[in-house]
Each structure stands twice: as C-alpha cells, then as structure tokens.
Please model this.
Amino acid sequence: MQGHEAAGPPDVPALRDDSRLHDDRLDPFDDTHPAIAGLRSGLRAALQDAARDAEAQGVRIWVTSGWRSVAYQQELLDQAVQRYGSLSEALRFVASPDSSSHVTGEAVDIGPTEADDWMTRHGADYGLCQT
Model:
C-alpha cells in the first residue's frame, strides 16, 4: 500500500542498522518500531486508521514490511540476485535502494491474506493505493 505525501523521513543512522527491520509481523500501531516510525506521517496515519476500522470489522492487519533502510533494501536485492541468478532478473522482484518506495517511507506491505483482501477493497477510502 502506498500513501500520497510530499516529505519523507531521512535514512536515520540510528534506524539504519536496527535488526528489527527484519521483523515481518508488526503491529501497525507500534510507533517505536523503525519500520513503522520511518513511514511518512500521512501513510502511517492512513494505515492506522484503516487498521482500526478493519479490526472493528473483525479483520486483524499487521505490517509485513514498512520503512526500510538503504542497507536493508540492498540486502534484500543481494539475496534476490543470489536467488534469481542475475541483477536484471532480481530487479523484476526487488527494487534497488534508490528506487524503493519502502526506503522513502512511502510503502507498506500488509498481511495476512484476509487483511490484504480487506485493504484491497477499502484502502482507497483511506488514501491508500495498491501498487
């Protein structure tokens, strides 16, 4: 999901090397987690509003990936190169750090499947779009 907002968080050194960036089941309300704290404020607010309303309808949303440091995005790309055998093939599945919306705090991935379905149907109501 992506939100539309102009300014984003910097790649803050204190967050850059935080091992919690590897976490893949995050409470969207955990503003102390770097993957949530690093999201642009408008996206974070829209995500939290949507998660609150989804939960009221019996759907639990968690974040599987939010803000990523440049280093973590590069790590994911390097792993994809190993998996797919070439950079060009890896770039079909994983963005480079300079083109990743996660690095700029403009993207968030959610789960589980039921939550993804709910967000597909209702995300636009919160200014969120699926890319």
